């Protein structure tokens, strides 16, 4: 595959990332080396690459968490461990409630690029974070507070201690199964605001950017709305008295 064909698989907004990835792809395919990316990528990048994995080059991705959104990409990796660490961040202040934004903001304030860390899961003032191994030591040495509260950091090495995926369930009522209607209801925004999210590439359907507002969703579809979270269309619950469709949505928590 030549460079132009490779880059054409991605959105125009991803041109710079696609160019860097082509260089790694070319080295791995030409020389048979195992090559890992130094950044973690979103599904609109890693899913495209996984789909072209073949007998000539193996391409896979890993983000520690089950169904991780942000992942390191590996070319020709058959034996080596991915250079990722799972870090547990604990805040023992019972008088505040911290959220995803608090933890991410504190990490970013250290000057770490967003693409060097992966997914974060937060519960009861404890955050589990996947991070590229090259930034792990820096985080352990320099992240001392979340908001204004002291924190403790530890690397979780035993996979048995990795947090399990959990969901929050909610029911939405929509006029149709069109993606724009479902996005508007899930994100609790107007239909016009949902269209803006779609047009700006912030909505992924089953890990691919989806701009088509009239696309119908199906059971078990995964919908990612950047800035709002990741969701599963879990179950159809019939119709309301007004004739609107009732759908159970699971949000990754």
UniProtKB/TrEMBL annotation:
Segments forming domain RNA-binding S4: 177-237
Lineage top rank: taxon: Bacteria
Cited SUPFAM superfamilies: Alpha-L RNA-binding motif
GO molecular function: RNA binding
Signal peptide bounds: none
Keyword terms: RNA-binding
Any Pfam family hit: YlmH_RBD
Coiled-coil regions, chain positions: none
InterPro entries, per the entry: Nucleotide-bd_a/b_plait_sf, RqcP2_RBD, S4_RNA-bd
Protein name, UniProt field: RNA-binding protein YlmH, contains S4-like domain
């Amino acid at each position: 595959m030549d460079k132009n064909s490779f880059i054409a698989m991605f959105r125009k907004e991803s041109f710079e990332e696609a160019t860097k990835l082509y260089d790694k792809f070319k080295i791995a395919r030409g020389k048979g080396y195992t090559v890992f990316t130094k950044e973690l990528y979103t599904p609109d990048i890693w899913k495209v690459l996984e789909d072209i994995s073949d007998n000539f080059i193996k391409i896979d991705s890993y983000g520690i968490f089950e169904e991780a959104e942000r992942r390191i990409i590996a070319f020709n990796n058959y034996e080596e461990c991915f250079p990722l660490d799972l870090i547990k961040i604990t805040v023992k202040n019972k008088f505040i409630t911290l959220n995803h934004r608090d933890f991410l903001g504190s990490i970013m304030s250290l000057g770490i690029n967003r693409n060097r860390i992966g997914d974060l899961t937060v519960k009861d003032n404890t955050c589990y974070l996947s991070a590229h191994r090259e930034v792990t030591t820096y985080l352990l040495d320099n992240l001392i507070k979340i908001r204004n509260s002291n924190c403790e950091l530890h690397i979780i090495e035993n996979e048995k201690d990795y947090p399990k995926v959990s969901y929050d369930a909610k029911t939405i009522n929509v006029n149709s199964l069109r993606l724009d209607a479902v996005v508007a209801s899930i994100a609790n925004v107007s239909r016009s605001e949902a269209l803006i999210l779609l047009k700006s590439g912030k909505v992924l359907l089953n890990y691919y950017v989806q701009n088509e507002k009239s696309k119908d969703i199906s059971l078990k579809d995964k919908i990612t709305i950047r800035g709002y979270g990741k969701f599963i269309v879990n179950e159809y619950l019939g119709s309301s008295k007004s004739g609107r469709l009732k759908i159970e949505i699971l949000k990754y928590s």
